[in-house]
What does this fold into?
Amino acid sequence: MSDAKQFLTEHNDLTRRFFLRCGVTLAAGTAVAANANAADTPAELAPVLEKLESYFTTQDKFGDVSRGRPVPHTLPLAKKKEVGLTRETWSLDIISDPDNPATLGKQFTKKDNTAIDFAALVKLGEKHAVRFAKVMTCLNIGCPLGMGIWEGVPLRTLVWLTQPRENLRRVFYYGYHNDDPKQIFRSSLPVGRILEDPDNVPPVIACYKLNGEWLTPERGAPVRIVVPEHYGYKSVKWLTHVVLSNLYHANDTYGTQNNDVDSPMKTFAATIHVPNEAKADTPIPITGYAQSGISGLSKVQVWVSPAGKGWDKDDPYFTTAPWTNATILPLPKKLGGDLPGGAIPKDTMGFDATGKPAEWPMRLAKAHWAALLPGLPAGEYTLRCRTIDVKGAAQPMPRPFKKSGRCDIEATKFTVAG
It folds into this structure.
């Protein structure tokens, strides 16, 4: 047996024995208390658990990858009012595609003063509004932008207002683009996805609230699209137009930029806390987050190897490495995100009346995880983490391609000092 394989085998055995000695069962889904004072939390983990980011993200803490020159949310207030980027001045055109027309009984346009205004949208929300938890992620960035509870009117409610009759196959939509056709950022969905939801997936919405508060301009106010199972490019900000089309294929802006526009969110894990330098023979606490994509999340696993050690080129995804299960943390009592009353809003999809998730981890959301590595000899090491989805596929499978979303196995280097 090679030195590297012998180390890996011994380390795997040591890790399992260490976790048992600490009384920590690291089967995925096992609850480690988010409260660092809980009796069943190993003392070494308590300080890093206290420093975890909040579960929900306040609007001002979301990552931002907005497009536009200038970015529309930076426009002066007077200009926002002029172009309809305030709640008082916003309106939405819902029209048939002039190039590939759908047969509609009615259209809504600013030109003939029939466009849907904000008050009308909110009025529809009194009967039809839904809210759900979703992590917002960019297709081409390997970390979530933020986690929130999104609220709005199902897009199908607006589509049915047009009395569609036939030749409706695709719905595309876009937002304010500085009155410059070259800046239009457009996304699309098959009409079937808008009219009907897959099992346990919320509807596509015209969204106007995040975490119980009106959207801020940075988050796409007054109204944006939110597509629960997709990356952020489908959730267009500053919505102004919904176009009903007989087009048979996607016409997303991202499609022309060599991205896979039909690939939903992936499941993957990454680290939050890994010490740059640890003490020899001393337990090492680590934490991270996992994004639960359309394929769900059943496990988070970690693996430590000596830095610089090679790996079988025929196993690029480390499927035969001695991975060890980490602990997926439960939904914390302190949720963050400036939720009204600090609680899950009533009738949020996926939660019961007490604010408890119907399933954990929640699909299309994030979860935190933690592990306590055993003490290691002095040296340089690489920590890797990965997810296993509900069907048993290990990250980065089943869709390892970057054009359909980032999900590379993260490698984090750290030092153990003698």
